[in-house]
Amino acid sequence: MYNVSIRDHMMIAHSFRGDVFGPAQRLHGATYVVDVEFRRPDLDADGIVVDIGRASEALHSILAQLTYRNLDDEPSFAGRNTTTEVLARTIFDRVVAAIRAGGFGGGARAITTVRVTLHESHIASASFEGRVD
Amino acid sequence: MYNVSIRDHMMIAHSFRGDVFGPAQRLHGATYVVDVEFRRPDLDADGIVVDIGRASEALHSILAQLTYRNLDDEPSFAGRNTTTEVLARTIFDRVVAAIRAGGFGGGARAITTVRVTLHESHIASASFEGRVD
Amino acid sequence: MYNVSIRDHMMIAHSFRGDVFGPAQRLHGATYVVDVEFRRPDLDADGIVVDIGRASEALHSILAQLTYRNLDDEPSFAGRNTTTEVLARTIFDRVVAAIRAGGFGGGARAITTVRVTLHESHIASASFEGRVD
Amino acid sequence: MYNVSIRDHMMIAHSFRGDVFGPAQRLHGATYVVDVEFRRPDLDADGIVVDIGRASEALHSILAQLTYRNLDDEPSFAGRNTTTEVLARTIFDRVVAAIRAGGFGGGARAITTVRVTLHESHIASASFEGRVD
Amino acid sequence: MYNVSIRDHMMIAHSFRGDVFGPAQRLHGATYVVDVEFRRPDLDADGIVVDIGRASEALHSILAQLTYRNLDDEPSFAGRNTTTEVLARTIFDRVVAAIRAGGFGGGARAITTVRVTLHESHIASASFEGRVD
Amino acid sequence: MYNVSIRDHMMIAHSFRGDVFGPAQRLHGATYVVDVEFRRPDLDADGIVVDIGRASEALHSILAQLTYRNLDDEPSFAGRNTTTEVLARTIFDRVVAAIRAGGFGGGARAITTVRVTLHESHIASASFEGRVD
Q1: Cβ F85–C1 below 8 Å, yes or no?
Q2: How confident is the model at residue A106 (pLDDT cuts 50, 70, 90)?
Q3: Which of C40, C75, F10, F94 has its CA 20 to 30 A from that of B91?
Q4: H/E/C letters for each residue in A115-126?
Q5: Are strands B2-14 and B69-70 parallel, antiparallel or unpaired?
């Protein structure tokens, strides 16, 4: 199985509801360093999993919809905690939708699995991994 | 599949028996930077895999039983080499036992898989991964 | 010259005023991984620059006054942009005040220079460095 | 499942054919920081996955056949793009062949899976993972 | 003293002349992860050392003149070894020239010192540091 | 000012005397990832600060005298705590002596400053920096 991973980041504000979050119930924020891994069993004719240049631009566009925002005000997250886990899943869903729509290039449709990891500090991260097809 | 990873460390002395270990047969030591990954297919009602604050405390308690010690003197390792692989397994077993006993919070019982990675230097690491249930 | 460096982090929300900041004029947030370096020309009788355990606790207390907050609402930053540079200076000032007040231990008063670095992502950081005496 | 990972690197020149590569069609180069992970379900009698010293030497020998070279001139890559993905696969094949030939030690034949990851920059990497048996 | 650091990278081919370089006398290549640090004693009215967005674009333009090239063919390096040290100095000179020409923004002219570091692998780097004025 | 930095590591056991060390008064151990930086104002005729290959071998030889040992048993540390600071100074002294003796190559005698940093975990490090001449 082949894998390619690219990195970008986003910087957001948010707050959480639930006693389990302690002081993180207050409005605060985070930098998420975002790694997206693309997997497929075979390479295309050029010898690649995905066009890294195009994938980097597509990922950047997806993160541009989230970065420099207060996620508490985003309708798409209404009524939900925007935990690192939930954000990893959200970005996964948007990456998969973009792959299917051709945003990562035609060859990217052969990708079978995607994993999105968000590093929130030097000691904690969360990810979501799932199939594309 | 969701994944959350937390990091801590421990600093121990030990020696190895067996020609394969060369100079590591002498009493020496290591810092192990410890990553523990928790996986489950769905999030709980708060949108998390595990309460990171509680998990960090629980992991710290487990490592406190090992750190700042000469593992050659620990009865639980009598007759065994405390290689990075063996220590990864030992911490895995203790994390799983603590999850089952509620030490990582009630919701943590939904975790299906745990992976424990010990980084022993900038060029080497070992891990053990297994199911919780 | 001897140097000891310790690491912790904080997670805050804020916004900036000024066209130069572009989309960062919106309410957003950041994780700052914080490195504090302590320098002195000679070691104390124990062979250390500073008691790392005590210094880590003192730094954690200083960061606890900032983390999990919206800095736009903090009176101490009223009328100022809480840029990474400004926050590095703020933490520097508080570390130096705590050193002088004995919060880093009596021996820490021999520290001559402190440098505070805030890593805001995998590609950007800022620091402030100055003398203690 | 146990896993051990070791790290080394190589520095090569090459060029790519195909419009998808843009400016990388020109002769350029890369440092690849190479991580090789070895997995097996059980440890040997010494408590290890593989003799790290011997594995490091064996990996270094494999990389010595590639490093400090212009891969465009290497007959083994004639007619193929030496993308990060292709190089990860090439190193995987050579590691597996060496394991089978005893180059990683007799005990290494119990390894069931190998993953080779090449980090080409702070924002991109590729890997190939497959079974040994 | 305030400091801001930004990161980018470039990927080049080259060869060295001189017995000291051993196998690196052959045509090979490198990824250089490039950190540029900007220092000044005081912040501007916005509370910053330099406009990070503009500085990142200016650095990217400077590296675009070097990346994806065989430096053996670049007239500006004729007769010289393009060692990591020489490249750090070259990028330093170009950054300083761009600062003076206003390419990093008008406020950047208050920068007093620049340091350029090139990481060539996980175990080696080189830098050049000098004054701007 | 030019700077070149190389990395290696060592793994030792030791214990500390003094209440300030708390549980580290027990026999324990550490991995030290060791960075050595060499500085000089000008490059040699080959365009380098130091022959990295030779410097890496010389550093490895110096660390070989310490690694895989219990430092409590080393006569050269009798009566002293082998703190990270003390070890950074010890390695600095040995590197400087080796530079003067020609062990880092004849050109290395032009090095004016050396800095030795020991990373003991992901959150703590210590260094010693001084002049060679």
Answers
A1: no
A2: confident
A3: F10
A4: EEEEECCCCEEE
A5: parallel
- Identify the segments of chain D with pLDDT beneath 50: none
pLDDT at residue D12, as a whole number: 98
**For E123, which residue in chain B has the nearest alpha carbon?**
B122
Tell me: pLDDT of F107 over 90.
no
List CB contacts (< 8 A) between A13 and chain C.
Answer: 13-14, 27-29, 70
Residue F106 has pLDDT above 90, yes or no: no
**Interface predicted TM-score of the whole assembly (ipTM), two decimals:** 0.96
Q: Which residue is listed with tokens 């077993």?
A: B93
Spell out which residues of chain E touch residue C123, defining contact as CB-CB under 8 Å: 6-8, 56
Q: What is the DSSP letter of D42?
A: S
Question: What is the per-residue pLDDT across E13-39, written as a single tens digit (0 to 9) for each?
Answer: 999 999 999 999 999 999 999 999 999
Q: Enter the DSSP assignment of E57.
A: H
Count B/D contacts: CB-CB distance under 8 Å.
56
Q: Please enumerate in sequence order all residues whose Cβ is within 8 A of that of B45, keeping only pairs 6 or more positions apart, or say none.
A: none
Please tell me the distance in Å from F87's CA to the nearest CA on chain A. 26
D14 contacts on E by Cβ (under 8 Å)? 13, 29
Nearest CA in chain C to F118: C4
Find chain B residues with C-beta within 8 A of D53's C-beta: 20, 22
H/E run at residue C130: strand C124-131
pLDDT tens column, F21-66: 999 999 999 999 999 999 999 999 999 999 999 999 999 999 999 9
